[in-house]
C-alpha cells in the first residue's frame, strides 16, 4: 500500500513510530521539507514519486543506515541561478535506485547558454553523493544536467552501476561543462556499466584511491580522464583501473592531466582494453601542464604531481584526421608500461616530452 498524501503518510509515520517504523515503506509525491525530515528519520524504504523540487532548493537526503531509496516517475527541479547541488545524498549501507519508469530530469536546457562555468547563467551541480559509505547506486536515468552531473566525494565504498546520463540535448541547446562523473577524495569506488552522452569529461577522477571504472560508454564529451590532479585540498590518485570501455566522438579518449606548479601524485593507474571511435582532438593525452585557473595548458610541464606506475594496455581505435593520436608532455614520470597501443587516423603530430625510458609508447 502506498501513501501518496503527505498527511496520510505523517499519520502513518506517527502510528508506526512506536513499533517498527524504520521498516515502513514511505512514499512522497510532493516536495515539502517537513515530510523529507520525517522520512529521513522514520523510513528505511523510501520512494520519491514524481517530485518537483522548488527553485533554489537542494533535495537533501541524510538517510538512515540501510535505507533503500527509489526514484519513481519524473523528478524535476525548478530553475534558479545558483551553485546547487540539486540533489545531495549521504548515508551508510544505502541502496539508491530508480523504478523502471523513472527519470531524473534536471532540465538543464533552462540554464544552458553555451558558456558552462565560464559565464552566463550560474549553473548548479546536479547530484552529490557526499560521505556515502558501503552503498550501491544502480539503474538510474539522469537527463539534461545544467552543469556537472554526479559528484562522488568524501565517500568510501560506493558501487555505481547501470547509470545513464543523457545530456544529448546539450549538443544543440548549449550544454557545456556537463561532466558525467567526478570523483574526489574517495576510496573504493566502482563505476560499472555507465552510459554518458555529454559535453565534457565522461568520468574525471580528481583524487581518490582504489577506483574502478569498467564497461563505460562515453559519447560526445571529453573522454575518460584522471584529473586535473593538483591544486586542491587532497591531490592523490592511487590504484585506478579503467577498462573495457568505448569512447566515441569525444574530444579525447584516454586522458591524464596534472596541474602546473602543483604537488600531489598519480600512482598505479591502468587503462586497459579501451576502444576509441572518431576521437576529435587527442586519442591518448597525458599532460602535466594544466592551468587550473584558465582551464587551458601552459605548454610547459612541472613534476610536482609525478605519474608513476602507469599502464596502458590494449588501447585501440581511431582519431579524426585533424586530431593527434598520442600526446605526452610530462615531467618526473617513472615506471610506465605501455603495450598493444594502436591509435590511428590523426594526421596532426605534437612533440612529446618526458616519457620515461622503456615505456613502450611514442608519439
Ligand atoms: C550535503 O549533505 C551533507 C551531509 O548531510 C552536508 O554536510 C552538506 O552540507 C550538504 N551539502 C549541501 C551543499 O547541501
Ligand atoms: C568496497 O565497496 C563495496 C560497495 O559498497 C563493498 O561491497 C566492498 O566490500 C568494499 N570493499 C572494501 C575492500 O572495502
Ligand atoms: C539497466 O538499465 C536498463 C534501463 O534502465 C534496464 O532495462 C536493465 O534491466 C538494467 N540492467 C541491470 C543489470 O540492472
Ligand atoms: C594497483 O592497482 C590495482 C587496481 O588497478 C590493484 O589491484 C593493485 O593492488 C595495485 N597495486 C599496488 C601495488 O597497490
Ligand atoms: C619528482 O617527484 C618527487 C616525488 O616522487 C618529488 O619529491 C620531486 O620534487 C619531484 N621533482 C620535480 C622536479 O618536481
From TrEMBL:
The keyword Cell wall biogenesis/degradation applies. GO terms for molecular function: polygalacturonase activity. The active site is at 222. Keywords: Cell wall biogenesis/degradation, Disulfide bond, Glycosidase, Hydrolase, Repeat, Signal. GO terms for cellular component: extracellular region. One of its GO terms (biological process) is pectin catabolic process. Pfam families: Glyco_hydro_28. InterPro entries: Glyco_hydro_28 (IPR000743), Glycosyl_hydrlase_28 (IPR050434), PbH1 (IPR006626), Pectin_lyas_fold (IPR012334), Pectin_lyase_fold/virulence (IPR011050). The keyword Calcium does not apply. Coiled coil: none annotated. PROSITE patterns: POLYGALACTURONASE (PS00502). Belongs to the glycosyl hydrolase 28 family. This is endo-polygalacturonase. It comes from Apriona japonica. The gene is gh28-1.
